[in-house]
Design a protein that fits this description.
It is a single-pass membrane protein; Single-pass type II membrane protein. It comes from Romeriopsis navalis LEGE 11480. The structure is a single chain. Strand 1 and strand 2 form a beta hairpin. The N and C termini lie far apart (77 Å). It is built from four helices and five strands, in the order H-H-E-E-E-H-E-H-E. The chain is an alpha/beta fold and 127 residues long. Helix content is 43%, strand content 15%. It has a domain of 72 residues: Nucleotidyltransferase, domain 5, CATH 3.30.420. Helix 3 packs parallel to helix 4.
């Protein structure tokens, strides 16, 4: 009596089914969010973007000393320098560069002082 071998038929049916599942997934309409990404622009920009203000770098070394562009400073000198910089540069930002071996408590404390002076114009540099 002849036997019907079902394994090849199941393989063919599964292949056809897989094909139709994949095709239905690629042809279906995906819902997407309408987002307009900014282009690279024409390179002209406005004057604020074409002449960016250099950030004021405040450093904190391993010894816990505050380092400015002019050298080591104490806290009142740093506060005066930051206030002067922020008043002269409305678009300027203050960046805190702390040594990786400085205790995090000291970094947070100095960052809090800078935040009180500059609000959201203060950043912590990381690498």
């Amino acid at each position: 009596m002849p036997e019907v071998n079902l394994i090849p038929m199941i393989d063919v049916i599964m292949t056809i089914l897989t094909f139709f599942i994949i095709m239905s997934m690629t042809l279906s309409n995906f819902q997407s969010v309408d987002i307009r990404l900014p282009g690279k622009g024409d390179g002209k920009g406005n004057s604020a973007q074409s002449n960016p203000v250099q950030p004021l770098l405040v450093g904190l070394n391993v010894q816990g000393q505050i380092v400015l562009e002019s050298g080591i400073a104490d806290r009142p000198q740093m506060i005066q320098k930051v206030q002067t910089y922020l008043m002269q540069n409305p678009q300027g930002v203050v960046v805190l560069n702390a040594d990786k071996d400085v205790p995090y408590e000291n970094v947070v404390q100095l960052l809090g002082v800078l935040r009180d002076l500059g609000g959201d114009r203060v950043s912590l540099a990381i690498q």
